[in-house]
Design a protein that fits this description.
Layout: E1 2-10, H1 15-26, E2 33-47, E3 50-61, H2 64-69, E4 76-78, E5 99-101, H3 105-116, E6 122-124, H4 130-143, H5 177-187, H6 204-220, E7 224-226, E8 231-237, E9 240-246, E10 250-253, E11 257-259, H7 266-274, E12 279-281, E13 284-293, H8 294-302, E14 318-320, E15 326-333, E16 337-340, E17 350-353, E18 362-371, H9 373-376, H10 383-398, E19 403-407, H11 408-413, E20 427-428, E21 431-433, H12 442-455, E22 468-473, E23 480-482, E24 495-497, H13 508-525
Parallel strand pairs: 5-6, 5-11, 6-7, 11-24, 16-20, 19-21
Antiparallel strand pairs: 1-3, 1-4, 2-3, 8-9, 9-10, 12-23, 13-18, 13-22, 14-15, 15-18, 16-17, 19-22
Helix pairs in contact: 3-6, 3-13, 5-13
């Protein structure tokens, strides 16, 4: 295959025009191209409203070597042939099946890879199946009746299931794990475009189906998946794992347990701390969700409010303030919804969500400020958890369990809003006017205000008076790091901290990649069951 970089075409181009452009670069006729595969597609909006797609493509031709010899620049190269390989080289026998605690992206992909390789993993999920969980979440948004074990944070698929399903990651990947994650998603029902678009996403509506199909594949390959199965204890002897206890009564013998518990498993963090599993507090970020009209974001990014060809526009903004705080956008959801993402009684947290079509009227994103253990004023490993809880408790009380909302103008003036402007909320869950600013320590509130003000220089209208703020966005990442060494295990033999909850990932894709990494390590040491 030959790889061609930087192929630019109008956003309204046809497949035939793409093939002709590739042939022109190679100085051959279109008929000589036997196969064309898109590797990457991005949007060039630097000369808006003149918009272009920019491609990297691979093509198959009959006389590849001769064509490559004629090339005089780096636009045309031989396509790399390296593909991901899952190697089984372990020789130690397994007495018990590996236990995976949590079915978010890291746990799900770890279980999938192990099951496919013959390790017959047991996947334990404290929450419900994705079908049951969807009903629980919809009921909570409608009635406010929270199920602490089945909600936006807990249940099959993890917190990412009720988000935008964004699959971009900044993790450097020399092993092909990133591509493997995307391929597995596509194999189980995700759109093929996620293999090449610059900022791939699936959407909550499709992701729920994909997750179920992956579960079915795990079971078909000999694995087990158990719902409503919270690990409440570990049995450890001489620093070696012996078994796990489920729901306080059922003991499962095991010598391997993957801790893919997610960033919101606060009770599990506490149990692990009490069992002596080494951990430490880590930095994370807190802030608000902001809502703007999607047409405003489109105008800023594309030079036009509506475009029938391009998807709803996204953005990414960041600023380092003079007070030393970093403020930035996170989990941006074009055409999306702000959702009540609470998981504990009398505490409230929000998140963002989009469906696959990103067809909502508003764009939303988290505008967040980094907080460090110095802000917690406590070196206890779980001090970040308590910091989150304190803010979420304030948010809950502020609007009596509803999502507190405030216009940006009133946030700056520290007063409760009493009406909406041109932007109307798009929210899953009930909401009410409240002084969102009062949730935060003043330095953080001030940083949010100044950050939004600065972002207006990049996106016109970002700091408009009627921009809607809601809070609190507190589950940006885990407040804890469960320590692991070069072998990826804890000091307690057999325990593998994994994914975002353990502090080693920051989104769906990176968490899934970490799950695959743990599966590789197990296959490096142990041989599968017959």
């Amino acid at each position: 295959m030959i790889r061609i970089n930087q192929l630019k075409l109008s956003i309204t181009h046809t497949e035939e025009e793409l093939q002709k452009k590739a042939a022109k670069v190679l100085h051959i006729s279109s008929s000589q191209i036997e196969k064309l595969q898109i590797v990457k597609q991005s949007i060039d909006a630097r000369k808006k409203p003149d918009l272009y797609y920019v491609y990297t493509i691979d093509v198959a031709v009959a006389k590849e070597t001769q064509i490559l010899k004629k090339q005089k620049n780096n636009q045309v190269l031989k396509a790399p042939e390296k593909q991901y390989t899952f190697r089984i080289s372990g020789t130690q026998p397994l007495q018990y099946a590996p236990v995976i605690i949590g079915s978010g992206p890291s746990g799900l992909f770890c279980a999938y890879m192990l099951a496919k390789a013959g390790y017959k993993p047991i996947l334990l999920e404290r929450g419900a199946s994705v079908e049951e969980r969807t009903k629980d979440v919809e009921r909570f948004w409608k009635t406010g009746q929270l199920d602490p074990e089945s909600n936006v944070q807990f249940g099959e698929g993890g917190a990412g299931t009720f988000s935008d399903g964004k699959l971009n990651t900044l993790v450097k990947d020399t092993f092909g794990r990133n591509r493997k994650v995307l391929e597995i998603f596509v194999e189980h029902g995700a759109p093929e475009e996620i293999l090449y678009v610059n900022k791939p996403h699936i959407g909550t509506d499709i992701l729920t189906t994909v997750v179920k199909k992956m579960r079915d594949a795990i079971v078909a390959a000999g694995g087990e998946v158990h719902f409503h199965s919270k690990v409440t204890d570990l049995q450890i002897q001489n620093h070696c794992l012996q078994s796990v206890t489920v729901n306080g009564k059922h003991e499962i013998p095991c010598n391997i347990a993957i801790l893919a518990i997610g960033h919101s498993a606060r009770d599990t963090f506490q149990m692990l701390y009490e069992k002596g599993i080494p951990m430490e507090p880590k930095s994370f970020a807190v802030g608000v969700r902001v809502e703007h009209k999607q047409t405003m974001i489109n105008l800023s990014q594309y030079g036009m409010e509506e475009n029938s060809v391009l998807p709803a526009a996204s953005y990414k903004v960041a600023e380092q303030l003079s007070n030393g705080r970093g403020v930035y956008s996170f989990c941006m959801c074009p055409g999306g919804y702000v959702v009540n993402a609470s998981s504990e009684e009398e505490m409230l947290a929000v998140n963002g969500m989009s469906y696959h079509d990103r067809g909502g009227d508003n764009a939303n994103s988290a505008i967040i400020v980094t907080v460090t253990p110095e802000d917690f004023k406590n070196t206890h490993p779980l001090s970040g958890v308590e910091f989150q809880r304190e803010l979420e408790s304030k948010a809950y009380r502020l609007a009596n369990g509803r999502i507190p909302v405030q216009l940006y103008e009133d946030f700056c003036k520290n007063r409760v809003s009493d009406h909406f402007g041109k932007v109307k909320p798009q929210m899953k869950g009930n909401y009410a006017f409240a002084n969102v600013r009062s949730i935060f320590p003043e330095e953080i509130a001030h940083s949010i205000e100044k950050g939004i003000e600065k972002f207006n220089d990049k996106i016109c209208g970002f700091s408009h008076d009627d921009t809607i703020l809601s809070g609190i966005e507190s589950r940006t990442s885990s407040p804890v790091r469960i320590l692991r060494g070069k072998t990826l295990t804890s000091e307690v033999s057999g325990i593998y901290p994994c994914g975002e909850g353990a502090g080693y990932a920051g989104g769906i894709t990176s968490a899934a990649m970490d799950g695959i990494k743990i599966a590789e390590k197990i296959a490096e040491i142990y041989n599968p069951f017959d």
